[in-house]
Write the structure tokens for this entry.
Amino acid sequence: MMNKFSTSVFAACILSAATTAFAAEVPASLDAKNCKAEYPKASLLNEEQGDVTMSFLVAADGTVVESKVEKSSGFKNLDKAAVKALSACKFKPGTKDGAVAQTWTKVDYSWKL
């Protein structure tokens, strides 16, 4: 049987956990104008085009820690070239609760001839 005091402490712990779970997070961002991927020669010759969606784990210093393709352009060469080029770019780091932190962000890249 719980007394009044232990019930209050239990409720406070639940509230604290819920607040932590919904911490304000702002993902990292990239200035795409300053970061371009070079069109792969084979893709140019084959007239390949498409949009690739990637996710990047960006460290607090703006460097890429990890990357992955979320949605392929339909062409492996284009996907690999986009991930390689954008992984080398400097991102503006994201924040958690107002402090600079490591965050995931999504980036779409369009290959057009």
Summary: The chain has one domain: 24-111.
